[in-house]
């Protein structure tokens, strides 16, 4: 499983969240503690918002712990909202195009989890992506396919409904294909203004997800960035967290209906 973090709030240098904490995301790329795979060395990525409408992106297939450019960017870039992700591949190639976060226009998306038995239904899943968005599919991951399919269903206008609809349809495909593996989905999505975080799995064993309020800010992480869980709140299974203006504005049920 992958590890990620998202930040929204007062502008900060990326290193204050990505690299400086004692259990930072870079540390988790070597020694994650709340997932089956402790090493997440199949690439990494950053996505951040600056003075221009569309986010900046830096992704590479090297492990996060071995890239001095990553540390330099984190030391120099200051942003009010950013995503960071370290990858543990689940059946697709270790390639830059498969590293998160994924972007389209002003939107960013990153995912921890998988579509069980993706190879058996890959063509069906990719058929969910509208023609006008399929040209933007550059990798081979299930995560990117989910993102583009949800974008085609209005994720910018109603993220919960769009992603819930996509996941429900995929689960129906899995059932029809007699796939016994689970679908697991811990993810973050933003349209550049509002941040949504999701935690859901068809077997109710969703990947871990936490959030913590700060000074006019909110952090969302796969696992706490320090040794203590005291100030971190677990996102419940089957929930969607919404952050706007550096504050949590809603924690609600994330509805996925499988037909």
Question: How would you explain this protein's 3D organization?
Answer:
The protein has 259 residues and is of the alpha+beta class. It has a domain of 178 residues: Glutamine Phosphoribosylpyrophosphate, subunit 1, domain 1 (4-Layer Sandwich). The strands form two sheets. A seven-stranded antiparallel beta sheet has the order 3-2-4-1-10-9-11. The longest helix has 18 residues. The radius of gyration is 17 Å and the shape is globular. It starts with a strand and ends in a 6-residue tail after the last strand. The model has no long low-confidence stretch (mean pLDDT 90).
Fold blueprint:
Layout lengths: L2 E11 L1 H4 L6 H7 L12 E5 L7 E5 L7 H9 L1 E9 L15 E3 L2 E9 L2 H9 L4 H4 L7 H10 L7 H18 L6 E8 L3 E8 L8 E5 L2 E5 L11 E2 L4 E6 L2 E7 L6
Helix pairs in contact: 4-6, 6-7
List keywords for this structure.
259 residues, seven-stranded antiparallel β-sheet, Glutamine Phosphoribosylpyrophosphate, subunit 1, domain 1, six-stranded antiparallel β-sheet, alpha+beta
Biggest sheet character: 7 strands, antiparallel
Number of helices: 7
Task: Please state the overall shape, judged from the principal axes of the Cα atoms.
Answer: globular
Span between termini: 27 Å
- The helicity comes to 10-25%
Chain oligomer state: single chain
What structural category do the secondary elements indicate?
Answer: alpha+beta
């Amino acid at each position: 499983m992958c590890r990620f973090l998202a930040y929204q709030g007062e502008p900060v240098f990326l290193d204050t969240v990505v690299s400086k904490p004692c259990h930072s995301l870079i540390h988790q790329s070597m020694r994650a503690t709340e997932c089956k795979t402790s090493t997440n060395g199949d690439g990494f990525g950053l996505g951040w918002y600056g003075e221009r409408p569309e986010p900046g992106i830096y992704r590479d297939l090297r492990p996060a712990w071995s890239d001095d450019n990553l540390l330099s960017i984190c030391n120099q870039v200051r942003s009010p909202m950013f995503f960071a992700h370290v990858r543990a591949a689940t059946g697709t190639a270790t390639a830059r195009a498969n590293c998160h976060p994924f972007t389209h226009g002003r939107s960013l998306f990153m995912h921890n989890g998988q579509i069980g038995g993706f190879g058996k239904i890959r063509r069906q899943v990719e058929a969910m992506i509208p023609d006008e968005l399929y040209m933007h599919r550059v990798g081979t991951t299930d995560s990117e396919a989910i993102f583009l399919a949800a974008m085609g269903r209005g994720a910018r206008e109603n993220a919960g409904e769009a992603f819930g609809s996509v996941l429900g349809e995929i689960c129906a495909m899995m059932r029809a294909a007699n796939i016994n593996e689970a679908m697991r989905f811990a993810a973050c999505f933003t349209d550049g203004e509002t941040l949504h975080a999701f935690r859901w799995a068809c077997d109710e064993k969703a990947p871990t997800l936490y959030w913590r309020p700060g000074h006019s800010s909110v952090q969302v992480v796969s696992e706490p960035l320090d040794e203590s869980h005291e100030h971190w709140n677990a996102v419940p299974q089957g929930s969607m967290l919404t952050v706007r203006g550096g504050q949590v504005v809603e924690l609600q049920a994330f509805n996925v209906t499988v037909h």
